[in-house]
Amino acid sequence: MCGKRLPGQALIKRDSRKTKYFSRSRSMMLTVYLASTNPGKLREFRQAAEPRGIAVELLPGIENLPVCIEDGNTFEENARKKALDYSQWTESLVFADDSGLCVDALGAGPGVFSARYAGPEADDEANNRKLLSDLVGVPTSKRSAHYACVIALARRGKILTVVEGKAGGLIQDEPRGTDGFGYDPYFFYPPLNRTFAELSLEEKYEVSHRGEAFQKLLDYLQSQDRLG
Predict the structure, then answer these.
(1) Which regions in the chain score pLDDT beneath 70?
(2) C-alpha closest to that of 147 among 16, 12, 11, 41
(3) Which of 30, 35, 108, 141 has most Cβ atoms within 10 angstroms of its Cβ?
(4) Residues 6+ apart with CB under 8 A from 27
(5) What pTM was computed for the model?
(6) Cα separation of 98 and 132, whole Å?
(7) Which amino acids are annotated catalytic?
């Protein structure tokens, strides 16, 4: 574990037999906390959640918490680890995602190493350069790839649910578009004839791996809120 949970207020009790984990007043939105400092992810999650009556905020003080090392072999392992570790610092709901690009010609790489493909301190530009370098000589027709995303939701060191999503496409040589982040300018999505970086947030959410996974998480949160 990356750290110990700080003391917090007592859980809200519905009655003597059941603990209500998804409590909110009628005048307040349910709030879930994102265990990430990635502004692109936060922007996408917030815009998708607000119409569903759910607020997404960064986990308070996450920049000062011990960094959780993502050393899992799969996206699910990393998402679970982050959600479990960071949920110990709050009484509230915390979710974490792990996502990345899987290119068939690279044996499903960079995969879990997508964010640090060109090295531990690599930025998007460096990662994209390495991706294109590794694909030199591979024809476009053989550059099939998919984005994958796994989201884990936790509270007080316990996993509540895990969801996933995927989006398929091709890797092209030239960047297109100015929105998005990561490999988006090079990830061509055939059904819309555009790269992910050419899509608006609304369009991207409708077809992306993160949008699919997050939609499942929102469905879960709302169903639990109603049942609670």
Answers:
(1) 1-28, 225-228
(2) 41
(3) 35
(4) none
(5) 0.83
(6) 22
(7) 98
